[in-house]
Amino acid sequence: MSVSVQITQRLGDFALDASFESEGGVTALFGPSGCGKTSIINAIAGLSRPDAGHVRLGDQVLFNSATGVFVPPHKRRIGYVFQEPRLFPHMSVAQNIGYGRPNQLYSTRGDGGLAVLGIEHLLERYPRDLSGGEAQRVAIARALTSQPKVLLMDEPLAALDDARKTEFLPYLQALVAKTSIPVFYVSHAMSEVAQLADHLVVMRDGRVARSGALAQLLSDPAAISDIGVREAGAILNVTVAQADASDGLSVLATSAGRLFLPKVQAEDGTAMRVRIRASDVILSKDKPDGLSALNILPCKVTQIHEGQGPGVAVALRSGEDALMARITRRSARTMGLTAGLSCYAVIKSVSVAPTDMGGRGTESRVAQMP
Ligand SMILES: Nc1ncnc2c1ncn2[C@@H]1O[C@H](COP(=O)(O)OP(=O)(O)OP(=O)(O)O)[C@@H](O)[C@H]1O
Asked: The domain spanning residue 342 has which CATH number?
């Protein structure tokens, strides 16, 4: 279901002037604290009324200042998941999920919602006996029981520690793979966004700095300044060739060769995404020999983007995927890098964090092993 948002709104001293379209799926709103992500979510939910513009979900107009349409929040069929689970402490999980809608619990159970979220065994417990991750999964189930037309998630992992986040993400991935309703996912963590999103909206100072298909935007060197030099990096589609290579690594097949990366919790044959940060890629014109790095992928330079500082972003094609390297302007000059040049990308195994591996890969592609 396509989504179209175009809103201007003054909130105290803050001016929101945001416009983007998305084809549905998971749309991530990404940007630093205070850039206006929650304000957009609130406008979609109808919790605030923009000064001008429109919000459209498919052919349903939720807000249009020109025609005076403003559908009140309770008629929008929105599922909202906040940073904190906000469960009722005096009610069991089952009661929390079915709260106000006794029949809906069974529909969530019926379509596998509870199983996907891994909470079937928690139904009799009370919120005080749940971990932060479990409570948040219950909160998602509760949001789904109203059979919403859109799911809004405002930093749902923010209150969890890193270990719980890693544990939680596969549930979220399974859920978004299963649901056909559009999901808006607010985050300032690119690792989460890279695993979950189909479409990325990068916000800055109340405006949309970039909007586009996630993989395309993350491999666009011109977008680095908006995404942040530390966060920038392309997504490789990989297939797990050997999840447990017995030395603590997994062997992952890409269309250009094998990668040895920290062990993934997945079955052999699983398609997934791996985010390779641009600053973790070293380039070599010749195939390196006698190097400690295990991962060497043949590439072709597609574009070199010079920014303001001493670094340049080099866009690369690696088999069917895009990669990006951030190197110094000096190195690029010394190497004589130009578009079309063949080279090798070197990626240290330990530089890829477990949180950068996962998410829905492209299932149809057959990875070739060299
Ligand atoms: N009702 C309001 N009145 C005045 N200012 C507001 C109001 N709502 C939001 N703001 C301001 O608008 C700006 C954007 O807030 P918003 O919560 O949308 O940012 P955000 O990107 O979601 O931030 P965070 O990641 O910290 O949650 C902030 O400066 C905030 O103080």
From this structure: 2.40.50.100
Q: Is the pLDDT of residue 310 over 90?
A: no
ipTM of the complex: 0.94
Task: State the distance from the centre of ligand 1 to the C-alpha of 29, rounded, in angstroms.
Answer: 14
* Ligand 1 centroid, distance to 282 Cα (angstroms): 39
**The pLDDT of residue 264 is above 80:** yes
Whether 290 has a pLDDT exceeding 80, the answer reads no
In a domain, 11, yes or no: yes
The domain total for the chain is 2
Return the ligand 1 atom nearest residue 40 CA.
18
In-domain check, residue 296: yes
Residue pair 88/80 in contact by the 8 Å Cβ criterion:
no
Give me the CATH number covering residue 147.
3.40.50.300
What is the Cα–Cα distance from 29 to 154, expressed in whole angstroms?
9
Quote the CA–CA distance of 21 and 348 in Å, as a whole number. 37
Task: Determine, yes or no, domain membership for 368.
Answer: no
pLDDT tens string 186-239? 998 898 899 899 999 999 999 999 999 998 999 898 898 888 888 889 999 999
Integer Cα distance of 147 and 169 in angstroms? 22
Any atom of ligand 1 within 6 Å of the Cβ of 32: no
Sheet holding 60-64, edge to edge: 69-70, 60-64, 52-57, 3-11, 14-22, 207-213, 199-204, 26-30, 183-187, 150-154, 78-81
For ligand 1, the distance from its centroid to the CA atom of residue 39, given in whole angstroms, is: 6
**Domain span holding position 253:** 233-360
Nearest CA to ligand 1 atom 2: 11
Task: Select from 179, 211, 227 the last residue of a domain.
Answer: 227
177 and 253, same domain (yes or no) = no
Q: Which residue out of 9, 38, 44 has the highest number of ligand 1 atoms within 8 Å of its CB and is therefore the one to mutate?
A: 38
Is the CB of 49 within 6 Å of ligand 1?
no
Last-in-domain residue among 158, 193, 227: 227
Residue 91, CA atoms < 13 Å, CB-side half-sphere: 15
User: Does 80 share its domain with 219?
Assistant: yes
Confidence (pLDDT) at 370: 42
Residue 369: inside a domain: no
C-beta of 35 in contact with ligand 1 (< 6 A) = yes
